Amino acid sequence: MISWEDIYKVVAAMVPLYVALGLGYGSVRWWRIITPEQCEAINRLVSCITLPLFTFEFTLHTDPFAMNYRVIAADAIARLIIILLLAAWPKCSRKGSYCWSITSFSLSTLTNSLVVGVPLANAMYGHWAQDLVVQLSVVQAIVWLTLLLFVFELRKAGCGLFDAGAGQVASIESPPAKDVDGAGAASGVVDHEAAAVINVRPSFWRLMKVVWLKLALNPNSYASIVGITWAFVANRWHFEMPSIMEGSILIMSKAGTGMAMFSMGLFMALQEKILACGPELTAFGMVLKFIAGPAAMAISSIAMGLRGDILHLAIIQAALPQSITSFIFAREYGLHADVLSTAVIFGMLVSLPILVAYFVVLGFFR
């Protein structure tokens, strides 16, 4: 059974995050140290420098040869189930949209494994559980956050090329305005049949070219891949990274999570309300995070033959609070950042009692 000391360890891991968030909030709202224009630059710093180095640092220290691939497969199946449901949502319901499908994927699958999951898993089940949560976090960084980044770039490139194509056709197809008598626009009477805009969708290959170019220039897309490649090589031939390289990475990577929370505090300060998305969307996010995600993980884990404590841990780690990185990406690409910030802030506040409740209830099913 989890003890008060174990709960304190989890709380001690979470409180510094709120300190960083409060400093960011106060820097804009109370002390006026940072202007709204500077907030975007800080988020860019986090997105392109500190978070990639943070991801690279924890990925390169994993041991790929010691991973539990059955649990990883169950985790992948659970996320694929959610992806299929969210892809069908816009086609089956008028309320659905692909933009909301992207956000819903983040809410239901991307977790704060390292900050909250590691101490909680160790407190509940021991060191083996902590290692498993780290493994799932590495896979999340390599596969699922990269997939999220790809979808964001695809959406951004598609909108940009679509607008550019429509503008070009409009300029070609629209003849000069002329009056009713055909004497030109001098009389001021305009022939409106001459504002016609034809929508032109960009070709698939042109779209892919733009997306892959953007991903190639984004350090988030290959930080985890380079890290896991180093991990394979280092563990295969048993050598360590030189201390001068390790120190160069650590000096900025240690600021990754703290700066991400600081950036979220800046974002909160620019909103009218702390819970920026309102109570309905907050409840929607909590249902996806603490019910839909664990339910999909339970189905896939049982299908993969997981039983006992390892099944319980798989379900609990799927109910961990929202990934901070998902908010940084949402803000960077301008898609429902208010919903993701609320999910991170409110989710971390309510996650501890919910996760303990999961632990107690699952303990009855051995």
UniProtKB/TrEMBL annotation:
NCBIfam families: 2a69. Keywords: Auxin signaling pathway, Membrane, Transmembrane, Transmembrane helix, Transport. One of its GO terms (molecular function) is auxin efflux transmembrane transporter activity. May act as a component of the auxin efflux carrier. The chain crosses the membrane at residues 7-28, 69-89, 98-120, 132-152, 211-233, 248-269, 281-304, 342-365. The keyword Transport applies. Pfam families: Mem_trans (PF03547). One of its GO terms (biological process) is auxin-activated signaling pathway. Belongs to the auxin efflux carrier (TC 2.A.69.1) family. It comes from the Eukaryota. It is a multi-pass membrane protein. One of its GO terms (cellular component) is plasma membrane. This is Auxin efflux carrier component. It is found in: Membrane. The lineage of its organism: Eukaryota, Viridiplantae, Streptophyta, Embryophyta, Tracheophyta. PANTHER family: AUXIN EFFLUX CARRIER COMPONENT 1B-RELATED, AUXIN EFFLUX CARRIER COMPONENT 5. The keyword Transcription does not apply.
